[in-house]
Amino acid sequence: MAATDTALQSEYVEKVDADLKHNLSEQERLRSEAEALELQLEGLRKDHDLLVSVKAALEQRAISGSAQKARGKQRETGAANSQDVAVKRRKYTRSAVPLRELVVAVLAERNEPCSAAEVTKVLASNQTDRALTVQLVRNALESSVAKNQSERIKQQNSVYYMARNQAPAAEPSNAPEEMA
């Protein structure tokens, strides 16, 4: 009986050794496949970045080409004055809507006071052609406050903005309410 136990035990040891070798070789195979896939992924990321920059350059070139065509037409006709050319350049190179108006529109859409960061987040999701920072949006918000298009609300250490026509409801008065 001891001989069969020893034979069975050595058979199990051989089987476990074979399974371990197979496991290690499978791990190595998968590791090398993962490394190859990682290299492919990195290459695709670089290609993506390159394609995005090429697209941006082509779009910028198309915009400047349109502006040059506008200037060329102005030279041909000779009828447009320098103000017309400036308006055309502005039209082709940036959005016609001032940032202050966009900020006021965002505030008008919301029913609650918004911080400059919240307005920046909304504008960034809608305006892909502008480089927006919180400071730039805050300046536009302050400009809208100066022009009475919105109002500033200070709460503790925070500043919130609200469209002028959406002033927060007045505090309830201490006067007794009418009974119906």
Description:
The protein is mainly α and 180 residues long. The protein is built from five helices and two strands, in the order H-H-H-H-H-E-E. Strands 1-2 form a two-stranded antiparallel ribbon. Helix 1 packs antiparallel against helix 2, helix 3 packs across helix 5 and helix 4 crosses helix 5. The chain is elongated. The C terminus is likely disordered.
Give the gist of this structure.
68% of the residues lie in helices and 7% in strands. It has 180 residues and is mostly helical.
> In DSSP terms, counting alpha (H) and pi (I) runs of 4 or more, how many helices?
5
Number of strand segments: 2
Which outline best applies?
elongated
Helical content band: 55-70%
Query: H/E series, N to C?
Result: HHHHHEE
Mean pLDDT: 78
Name the descriptors.
2 strands; two-stranded antiparallel ribbon; mainly alpha; disordered C terminus; 180 residues
Task: Produce the secondary structure layout.
Blueprint: H1 2-77, H2 82-93, H3 99-109, H4 116-126, H5 134-146, E1 150-155, E2 158-163
Antiparallel strand pairs: 1-2
Helix pairs in contact: 1-2, 3-5, 4-5
